[in-house]
Design the sequence.
């Protein structure tokens, strides 16, 4: 069964909250509730033409926390099966993130691997690994909260991939 993909669309702001993001979250939460959670969730700003745009830090953080709470609603399960990385660290490397995705969750179930403030680069090897999902353990979910909008090439490849959900983090 092909799962629906959420693409980017124009955001209309009402009372400071992006309406499009609320709709995207509602649809994502329905997928999670029905047992069809995506394998990859990307939170990033929409690009403005060819120029990259910064993702709204507060909006991305709140969105990420909401997604994690829906994926791992039990606090004890969250403590054991939530792995977090910071893309802001100078020592950040993507390989440990991929290794976590290859290992299963404690006692089965869902494992969520989060990268906050992920730097968006043209890291073709990292993007290829995300697209291939080689050896990723069943039930694992990666959530990437990007610092900036994705490059058009990366965005296109990820949108064409199955089980990927994009959430609009445009300020």
Sequence:
């Amino acid at each position: 069964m092909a799962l629906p993909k959420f693409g980017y669309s124009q955001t209309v702001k009402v009372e400071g909250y992006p309406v499009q993001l609320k709709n995207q979250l509602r649809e994502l939460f329905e997928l999670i509730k029905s047992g069809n959670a995506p394998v990859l969730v990307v939170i990033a700003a929409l690009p403005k033409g060819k120029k990259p745009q910064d993702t709204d830090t507060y909006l991305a953080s709140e969105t990420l926390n909401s997604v994690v709470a829906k994926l791992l609603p039990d606090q004890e399960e969250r403590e054991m099966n939530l792995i977090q990385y910071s893309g802001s660290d100078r020592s950040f490397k993507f390989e440990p993130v991929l290794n976590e995705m290859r290992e299963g969750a404690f006692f089965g179930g869902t494992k969520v691997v989060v990268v906050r403030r992920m730097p968006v680069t043209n890291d073709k090897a990292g993007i290829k690994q995300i697209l291939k999902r080689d050896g990723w353990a069943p039930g694992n979910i990666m959530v990437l909260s990007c610092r900036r909008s994705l490059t058009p090439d990366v965005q296109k490849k990820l949108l064409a991939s199955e089980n990927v959900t994009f959430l609009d983090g445009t300020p």
